[in-house]
Amino acid sequence: MALSIRHPKDFWTGIIFLFFGLGAVIVAQNYPMGTAGRMGPAYFPTVLGGLLTLIGMVAVARAFLHDGEAVGKFYVKEIVLILAGVLLFGYLMRGAGLVPATMVLLLMSAYASPKFRWREALLLAIALTIFAVAVFVKLLGLPMPAFGPWLGF
User: Fold this and answer.
1) How many angstroms separate the CA atoms of 63 and 70, rounded?
2) CA-to-CA distance for 15 and 125, rounded, in angstroms?
3) CB atoms within 10 A of CB 105
4) What does the pLDDT read at residue 79?
5) Given pLDDT bands bounded at 50, 70 and 90, which one contains residue 46?
6) pTM greater than 0.70
7) Which of 22, 27, 28, 57 is nearest to 44 (CA)?
8) Secondary structure of the chain in the HEC alphabet?
9) Nearest partner of 9 among 79, 77, 63, 75, judged by Cα
10) For residues 79 and 102, what is the distance between their CA atoms, to the nearest angstrom?
């Protein structure tokens, strides 16, 4: 009896989890492990990678046991917009500061939605930016400028 994939979404989700889980475990092998009481740099990635690998194996096994729906449309434009927003956030943080970087990230991510509306997206971006500044800069005192040197502050 030949095995066939009955749930493609579970199968590919499991493969992705296996890839990242095993990758974390392999990369962590170059660092000292330590113990549970005195964790080394490899401890957390190894444990997390092992758990991710275990979840991936369960998902792949389920793909052969349970029926499910096929993999849907791959949203390339949306993925590119969100990834570009995250990369721009990282680039803008140092030079432009937290406020512009967060605004760009949130607006680009919101633009990826088919339900995007400028007014709602702008209000949400302003509210979340104020929240981020209040939490990270004011309350936690993290050394990140609200506005960076590129803007003359």
Assistant:
1) 11
2) 35
3) 24
4) 94
5) very high
6) no
7) 28
8) CCCCCCCHHHHHHHHHHHHHHHHHHHHHCCCCCECCCCECCCHHHHHHHHHHHHHHHHHHHHHHHCCCCCCCCCCHHHHHHHHHHHHHHHHHHHHCCHHHHHHHHHHHHHHCCCCCCHHHHHHHHHHHHHHHHHHHHHHCCCCCCCCCHHHCC
9) 63
10) 18
What letter represents residue 122's amino acid?
L
Q: How far apart are the first and last CA of the chain?
A: 70
Q: Which two tokens stand for residue 28?
A: 């962590």
Q: Which two tokens stand for residue 32?
A: 């000292």
What's the chain's Rg over C-alpha atoms?
21
